[in-house]
Amino acid sequence: MLRLHLTAATLLRVSAEGAATALVLTVQARTGNAARAGFVQTAMLLPYVLSGPVIGHALDRTGRPRRLVAVLAGAYAVATALLMMSAGRSPLVLVLLVAAVVGCVEPVVVALTSLLPRFVPPEQLSRAYGLEASSYTVAAVAGPGLAATVAAVAGGGDTGIVVVAAAALGALALPLLRIAPPQVRHEGTRAGVGQIVAGGLSVLGTNRVLRALTVSTTVAWFGFGGFTVAAVLLGQDIGAGAGAGGQLLACFALGSLLGALASARWLTPVGAERTVVAGLLGFGAAVAALALVPSLPWAWAVCGAAGIAEGPLFAATLMLRQREAPADRLGQVNTTGGSLKIGASAGGAALTGVFAGQLGADGLMLGIAAFQCAATALWLWLRKVPGR
Q1: Which of 156, 328, 356, 360 fits as disulfide partner to 25, beta carbons 3.0 to 4.6 Å?
Q2: Would you say 306 and 293 are in contact if contact means Cβ atoms under 8 Å apart?
Q3: Cα distances (Å, whole numbers) of residue 185 to 3, 283, 303
């Protein structure tokens, strides 16, 4: 059952990760103005902040979780197909509306993580979360990579094909899962969107470990939001060209995958908290070292090391959420935490765009590293603040 879950979830995540790349390439091919894709990406991102907690809340309470995730995944596949067909062809207002629909249902790809305890035995959860973390990493590499490959072979206008196909295959696999309903049933209570979002934030804020984890990883991801731009600039600075930035990101993703797979073997709930500290410091130290690398091979190696540190950090994050969150709020906690990280990453990317010209690659790398150090300090401090 875990293998089927990972297959379906990874396919959906490949689609989600590749959608942004496919969208830019499609709009560029059809209109000659890739900048328009930025508005569409924003339209996809904004609903996520609210729809994520709502979907997690619903998944925690429904007696038919398999039907719910199958419907949401199917809606995501259909909406993505409509977006790829309309982008660059239909009026921008219509395209933005379709993009907003995609953003409303896309959080299902994160919400699937909260289902693991329902069909994975407790003694195998550590391994399952390590493999789940590697699923996200594989998708982060394969999604944009497949989109770029299709664009090179068939042209940018057809890039969306691979994104839609991955979403459709993932959605078709979900009905084959056997997912138990939640152990705690909630009868006759309905909450508004504001209450649901506040409820997720309340759980994250009142539990000492979750509070420390959420604050520290949100700060860390604010810094991480600028890593892509910084990698491209670094490739230029060391004389390898802007294209070397893609190589550096690939090395980082490969290292992250190796780290996540390794954590599937040795990471335990007891050691997850120490892994958070080691991951933040290790990633921060590696990124800082990128400001000193003299050549591209050294940059490859250091980016790989940064990924190796980040992979277990993500697995530990998933494990601590499962360990600390109430069983009937795990979906809400996962999606709310994910929404905060996505929002922070978007903010960090925007800030990077403002200061990239003044700081350059070295300054950006040191800034990203500083955020990781700040995140570590916040984790250590908030873990000691009295509370549950």
Answers
A1: 156
A2: no
A3: 28, 41, 46
pLDDT at 34 over 70: no
Torsion of CA 124, 126, 128, 131, to 10 degrees: -140
Burial (CB < 10 A; 0-12, 13-18, 19+), residue 349, is middle
With a CB cutoff of 8 Å and minimum separation 6, the contacts of 146 are 14, 18, 162, 163, 166
Mark 151-175 as b/e (b = at least 16 C-beta within 10 Å).
beeeebbbbbbbbbbbbbbbbebbe
- Please check whether residue 118 is in contact with residue 60, taking contact to mean a CB–CB distance below 8 angstroms: no
Cβ count near 32 (within 10 Å) = 9
| Whether 231 contacts 248, CB under 8 Å | yes
Tokens of 227: 């890593």
Dihedral of alpha carbons 102, 107, 108, 110, sign: positive
Percentage of residues of the chain with pLDDT beyond 70: 92
Nearest-angstrom CA–CA distance, 198 and 336? 10
Tokens of 304: 């790989």
First to last CA, the chain: 34
- How crowded is the C-beta side of 325, counted as CA atoms within 13 Å? 30
- The three-class DSSP label of residue 225 is coil
Dihedral (Cα; 323, 325, 330, 332), 10-degree rounding: -150
Compute the distance between CA of residue 219 and CA of residue 212 in angstroms, rounded to an integer.
Answer: 11
Q: pLDDT band for 189, please (50, 70, 90 cuts).
A: low
Q: What percent of the chain has pLDDT over 90?
A: 26
Locus of tokens 């990128």: 290
Tokens of 152: 């090179």
State how far the Cα of 355 lies from the Cα of 53, in Å rounded to an integer: 32
